[in-house]
Structures are given as C-alpha cells and as structure tokens.
Amino acid sequence: MKVSIIGGPTDSGKTTLILDLAKYLTSNGEKIGVIVQETGEVDYDEKTLSDLGISTKEVNSVCIPCSLDTDIRSNLLMLQEESSPDTVFIETEETVLPHKLKADLERMALPDTELLPAIVVVNSTEAETSSDQLIEYARKQLEGAEIICIDMIELDKKEHIADVRKMILELNTNAKVLECPVARDESFLKMLLE
C-alpha cells in the first residue's frame, strides 16, 4: 500500500488534487483510501467518493500528530484490512507538517507500506512572496516538503507566480516545485506519485 501525505493551507486545493489523483488511479484499476482530518466541513462529496469506490476514514482530532499512535496508524491498518487499497491519501490541516507526519509513520514501520514524497499545496493567488510574511506553520511546511504544488496558476499573474516560486526555492532548495494546472494530465499526476 502506498501512502501519500498532502498538506497546505485551507483552500489551497488539497482536496481537488487528491480527487484528481484518485480519479487517475481508479481509472487504472487501483483501489483508493482517504484519511482526512475532521475539524470542520469535509469537502469530499460522498457520491463522488462512492462512485470512485474510495474508502474513507476521519481523524476527529484537533491535532493529527497528537493522534498518530492511535488514529493514523489504526485508520491505515483498518483501511488495509477492510478494503486493501493500493494507495491511501492523508489530507492534513494547515497546522500539520506533512514531512514530520511522514517521518513519524516511517518510524512506525507499518507492514507492506510505501510512503510517497510529502506534498504541500499552495494557492498561488493567496500566496505570500516573501518568507517574512509567512506564518510559522506555512514556512515549516514549505521547508520540509519534498514536492510543492503551486496551484490555481490560471487565476494568477505570471509575475506573482514567479515571485512565489522564488520565495519557495529560497526556503527549500531540495523540493520539486511544480506549477499545477487546473487540467492535470496523466504525466503531471504521475510526477506526484513517484
């Protein structure tokens, strides 16, 4: 089972990205699971999830890292037992550091589990262009991410996108920084799953 952890600020495009990835994978015959942190309204449409055959689990904790030993581990194991998904997406809230969650899961040594690169999604239209303007969690997410998706680029100016990219690369020279188009083709989605 592959596990992909996707984080970022509220309204950054995480849910849409996960649904796009899930549609791509299910069209290739894979079974998908989703774990989402439940602290407010869930953006997943139940009919869409059902149509795609996606199994879901919710973490009803204010803090995903505080619940790792119980909620995340048990939900991953339950999903594995109940529906044997090929890939599970964990969508985290903006205060959670995907790379730290990934490191914690690596230490748990879950059986038959491969952890994919930690992804952070940034809404280009709302993104800051100076690291001094970032809140602490946003900065730490960007610093630790393995892949950073600058989303909603069609709604932003090229100059602003370039400034956002520059700021990201100043914080994290090791990350793969991708501009995410609204229409995500197969080759783009594959890059997020390698």
From TrEMBL:
Residue stretches making up the CobW/HypB/UreG nucleotide-binding domain: 3-178
GO CC annotation: cytoplasm
Superkingdom field: Archaea
A Pfam family assignment: cobW
Name this polypeptide is given: CobW/HypB/UreG, nucleotide-binding domain
